Amino acid sequence: VMDLAVGVIIGAAFGKIVDSLVNDIIMPIIGAIFGGLDFNNYFLPLSSAVNATSLAEAKRQGAVFAYGSFITVALNFIILAFIIFLMIKAVNNLRRRLEREKPAAPAAAPPADVALLTEIRDLLAR
User: Fold this and answer.
1) Deepest of 9, 64, 74, 126, by most Cβ within 10 A of its Cβ?
2) Which domain covers residue 70, as residue numbers?
3) Are the C-beta atoms of 62 and 47 separated by less than 8 Å?
4) pLDDT per residue over 24-53, tens digit each?
């Protein structure tokens, strides 16, 4: 239970790191490549009353389809899922390597009744 709690706390903190990575590093680079636009401000107005240029202002004016925010959140998820996949893969590889390095356990002696029956069989075979 304690391991799970620690994992949840670390996961939440790691999610914030990935969120910052996407919002502060990756999306500005992508925005610069595509003409300096901020993906978070990409939206489609769903009513004719919306004539704003920023998403926050457009939300105050009426309903909007904020697909730029969705792109940012989807990119966050993809990066987070990929990093978690790599971490799990590394842990599984380490676990397999440690299992291969363990010396093989000696074969357990057969139970007394099986040993006795084997002895009788060998005596009868002579």
Assistant:
1) 64
2) 2-125
3) yes
4) 888 788 778 877 666 778 888 888 888 888
